[in-house]
Design brief:
- By secondary structure, this protein is an alpha/beta fold.
- The protein has 16 helices and 14 strands.
- The strands form three sheets. Strands 3-2-1-4-5-6 form a six-stranded parallel β-sheet, with helices on both faces. Strands 11-10-9-12-13-14 form a six-stranded parallel β-sheet. It has a two-stranded parallel ribbon with strand order 7-8.
- Strand 10, helix 14 and strand 11 form a beta-alpha-beta unit.
- Helix 1 packs across helix 3.
- The longest helix is centred in the middle third of the chain and has 32 residues.
- It is globular, with a radius of gyration of 23 Å.
- Bound molecules: nicotinamide-adenine-dinucleotide.
- Nicotinamide-adenine-dinucleotide (NAD) binds next to helix 1 and helix 5.
Length: 434
């Protein structure tokens, strides 16, 4: 099939590339000229495991191309995906301006019937607005379908190629049949394609993220209680997760959730409640998360005192989670800002996010080229993102490099008894002597 994907960010680029991987001819469109120039040279501007190889392979096979020209891309495509950003607006609502502008531009470029599929996360009812905007801009027939995206950054290609489910929202039978055909290679192991009305499809995306964020805030709240009463969240998590009604996934305590989706989607869901529904649970999820992002620095100040001038902190992990370079709303940002404000010097290392971190912090922090180099002369090490390479380090080497052997582990990746046995002062989340 001939497809166009508008927006080549984490979602659009992955979707377009994976559709090409299953044999379709895909044109990816973006307004960002630098991004399109880089992609046209086979350079992928984001880090996502497996993506660059797949982009290059499909470009070589001439199934995947990149352009800033929307009109020809739309003209030759039967299906047009919208995957542009929906950033948070000042009132907490998701800003759908780019989605609607794209819908209008697509409508104006149409040369016959098109199926327009929205993948961006949008407030419930936006698909109806897309339909209205398009109807006002074209005389050609079209169908609009909601197709929320559930991929996880860090495993986006894997998730797209083998989704737990595909959700299609809309009532145009022909368009639904076409999309089922398109997705068929991705659901060969029997995972379902769920067809529903467009509002339920839009809500499914928010409900999924709200549930995931709730799980995290729930466990973080219980972790705080564990610290207070002398229980161990690791033991509690295992015991709780074995209940089949609860399950073991996504119940790890930590330094708070971040990223381009959970924070903005929770605020958007609260905003959707408007004046009628206060959404108290969602507000609590957000409050707990805001408090959790401060916890690591509170522990640092409890140990070193409120003034941190003259102190040097090594930081391992900056991206909002492992296996991505995405720094959007990363918990590392408020942690580093608080440490800097208290006068500390930061020596940070991240396997992939150093460039993105550089855009945010400039020369206010020092960037170590390797993880051990961040430790040189440090008063303490803070672990904010649980990259695999931090899990089994050489602790003697760590101790030798640091000024004092103190670790603040925001992701509970070490065994407290083991690291304390090696002479470290060790703080983590929700465990005895936190
Ligand atoms: N990142 C994720 O993990 C994820 C997962 C599921 C859903 N989503 C949702 O998918 C959407 C896209 O997210 P993302 O992370 O890929 O965003 P992104 O910011 O990485 O990418 C958006 C892209 O759209 C482009 N764009 C903006 N306006 C445009 C226009 N008028 N025409 C063409 N291109 C335009 C931007 O230049 C950018 O390259 C959002 O609604 C997001 O909430 C994201």
């Amino acid at each position: 099939m001939n497809l166009a994907v508008i927006g080549t960010g984490y979602v659009g680029l992955v979707a377009g590339t994976c559709f090409a991987e299953s044999g379709n001819d895909v044109v990816c469109v973006d307004i960002d000229e630098a991004k399109i120039a880089a992609l046209s040279n086979g350079q992928v501007p984001i880090y996502e495991p497996g993506l660059e190889e797949m982009v290059r392979r499909n470009m070589e096979e001439q199934r995947l191309s990149f352009t800033t020209e929307l009109r020809p891309a739309v003209e030759k495509s039967a299906i047009v995906f919208i995957a542009v950003g929906t950033p948070q607006g000042p009132d907490g609502k998701a800003n759908v301006e780019h989605v609607l502008a794209t819908a209008k531009a697509v409508a104006q470029a149409m040369n016959g019937r098109k199926v327009v599929v929205n993948k961006s996360t949008v407030p419930v009812g936006t698909l109806d607005k897309i339909r209205d905007v398009m109807a006002a801009a074209t005389r050609h027939p079209f169908a609009v379908i909601s197709n929320p995206e559930f991929l996880k950054e860090g495993a986006a290609v894997e998730d797209f190629m083998k989704p737990d489910r595909v959700v299609l929202g809309g009532d145009d039978a022909e368009a639904i049949a076409l999309l089922k055909e398109l997705y068929e290679p991705f659901v060969r192991t029997g995972n379902p394609i769920l067809v529903m009305d467009n509002r339920s499809a839009e809500m499914s995306k928010y409900a999924a993220n709200a549930m995931l964020a709730t799980k995290i805030s729930f466990m973080n709240e219980i972790a705080g209680l564990c610290e207070k009463v002398g229980a161990d969240i690791g033991e509690v998590r295992r015991a709780v997760g074995l209940d089949r009604r609860i399950g073991p996934h996504f119940i790890f305590p930590g330094a708070g959730y971040g990223g381009s989706c959970f924070p903005k989607d929770i605020r958007a869901i609260i905003a959707m409640g408007d004046k009628d529904l206060k959404m108290p649970l969602m507000r609590a999820v957000e409050d707990v998360n805001e408090a959790q992002k401060k916890l690591l620095v509170e522990k640092v100040k409890r140990h070193f005192g409120a003034k941190l001038s003259g102190r040097t902190f090594a930081v391992w992990g900056l991206s909002f989670k492992p296996r991505t370079d995405d720094m959007r709303d990363a918990p590392s940002i408020p942690v580093l800002e608080s440490l800097l404000q208290a006068g500390a010097r930061i020596q940070a290392y991240d396997p992939e996010a150093m460039n993105e971190a550089g855009k945010l912090f400039g020369d206010r922090i020092h960037y170590a080229p390797r993880n051990y180099e961040a430790l040189r002369g440090a008063d303490a090490l803070l672990i904010i993102t649980e990259w695999n390479e931090f899990r089994r380090p050489n602790f003697s080497r760590i101790k030798e490099l640091m000024k004092s052997p103190v670790i603040f582990d925001g992701r509970n990746i070490y065994d407290p008894a083991e690291v304390r046995g090696m002479g470290f002062t060790y703080y983590s989340i929700g465990r005895k002597d936190g």
